[in-house]
Amino acid sequence: MSVAELKERHIAAKATVNGLRERLKQRRQALLDTDVVGYAKSHGKTAISLGSTDLVCCRTMQGHTGKVYVRIAELEKPDVMRKYRGKDVSNDCLSHNAHKKKCVKLSWFAAKVYSLDWAPERNRIVSASQDGRLIVWNALTSQKTHAIKLHCAWVMTCAFAPYSQSVACGGLDSACSIFNLNSQVDRDGNIPISRILTGHKGYVSSCQYVPDQESRLITSSGDQTCVLWDVSTGQRISVFGGEFPSGHTADVLSVSVNSSNSNMFVSGSCDATARLWDTRKASPAVRTYHGHEGDVNAVKFFPDGQRLGTGSDDGTCRLFDMGTGHQLQVYSQQHDSNDNDVPIVTSIAFSISGRLLFAGYSNGDCYVWDTLVAEVVLNLGTLQNSHEGRISCLGLSSDGSALCTGSWDKSLKIWAFGGHRRVIHSLH
Amino acid sequence: METAAVVVTDAPPPPAPRSPPGYPDLCGRHRLQVEVQILNREIGFLEEELQSLEGLQSVSGCCKEVNEYVGSQPDPLIPLTKKRRKSCCIWRWLWAKLCFNISWICCCCGCPCRQRRPICTCKHLKNCCCCRRCRCHCCRCGCPNRNCSKATCCRPRCRLRNLSCPECSCGCVWSCSKFTEICLCPKCSSTCCMS
Hints:
The structure holds 2 protein chains of 2 kinds.
Chain A: H1 3-31, H2 36-42, E1 55-62, E2 67-71, H3 78-84, E3 89-95, E4 102-107, E5 113-118, E6 124-129, E7 133-138, E8 143-149, E9 155-160, E10 166-171, E11 175-180, E12 193-198, E13 204-209, E14 216-221, E15 225-230, E16 235-241, E17 252-257, E18 264-269, E19 274-278, E20 287-289, E21 296-301, E22 307-312, E23 317-321, E24 327-331, E25 345-350, E26 356-361, E27 366-370, E28 375-379, E29 391-396, E30 402-407, E31 411-417, E32 422-425
Chain B: H1 26-52, H2 59-72, E1 81-84, H3 89-98, H4 172-175, E2 181-184, E3 191-194
Antiparallel strand pairs in B: 2-3
WD repeats (chain A): 106-147, 197-239, 245-287, 289-330, 384-415
Organism (chain A): Elaeis guineensis var. tenera (Oil palm)
Protein name (chain A): Guanine nucleotide-binding protein subunit beta
């Protein structure tokens, strides 16, 4: 076939694809007889009432400070001077170790928190910051139980294993590192890597263990693919997308595994779609969810496992039906048409009933949406002790009693119910 | 002496680089072929999806499922309200009159008296009290003061259910700064606090 004929076929195929997409859009529009808000209000639902003291910040965890201690004498060495040139050197002298050697504290970069994950059992949290550390916290006492120094400081994601013995992280090194929390530390006092998962051709943006499977991990990547790994061997089991058809056509930014059916997971991408995958058959994607007008930064399954939520650069969160692909609801705030700086949604989580949707934004807001009526019932960003920077990540504890938020202000905060059960009167 | 005739002919053209051989544009052709294949596959997926929409339930069916699910699940982060019958209003009014000047009766647990318990003088106290009379254990101030009455809700052998149990709001687990461990609540088998 000649190049000219190929070009004609290309044009015709492109036109057919566009026509089919338009027909799909119209067919879905015909099925859009209501949305969640319309249905809820027609059945008498009203927004829940949350006072400013109903959700309170009860823990603040600060540990990602990027502090480095250097002996004063070493600061005079040329290679050390080169390393710390231009950095802000504190005038404080601190006693460093048992030998009372004098050290200088350098606090020279803001260690933004990029990712967090709750342990499925017990109240622990792992957080990742680009100070090159993973920190494991006891969420109840705010104490650090582990501080893991990473080989690559540019970490973007972290996850707790199902039985809380290991943590995983990934980032710009295009690999996913696994650390066993029970490992003996090396002579530098660091926990060694127990496994490194290599194979992605781009940064690792998100990772999550398959529930109840300590050896199965799913990662998403800037190479437009997701991968299911066997952590025990370090091998890739399946690749989702990429050269295979019906995959994402841009960087994949987030994954969420369905806790009701762990064979299914959803991914969100810079191609403005979310896609549903079945781990038992890598290709093609089971369903594609259209609607967003920007990068899909966050995806999370609804607690019933039959719906999924997304958060995007377009400033909206959306609720989709997993099986039908319908867009059920859009959660967005009104902004001035002249306002070009619409805050982007960085992270989302549902409360265990699904009634509340927590959404973190780039301007430090953390809206609590009533999912049934699509109203913001609380903004954690305006409460006492709220974060002072972008909310980069958030997550709900496994029992649904607490929300943890991580921010570019270097801290993590835990929010829990601070109100009390009210007694109201009925009219009959 | 004869001289040889010199034949003068046109000078040969100056040397010029040779043009590259006329290879077919394999890269462009190959790329086009791959793109056409990808588009054809996409057409197949879109046709399958279009077909799957036949007989699909409308959005209202999905919304109904969402409403039903959300309404059926307890949530520890949402205030729980209990309805009280109107006939109790008279007793509430009477109770309010009787305890108006009895300052040791608590206010914030549902007891109508709005006075704070004066025993706790903690400066961190804010809209909080613990009522000995009704034993509501509703203190939330997070006060580290040992003498703070708030401590009553977080003592060892706490018998209250924690936030995980949606039927109560002990608040012990997250509010108490003395909290160090978890135990199983004897009443509802969910986690509770014990120091």
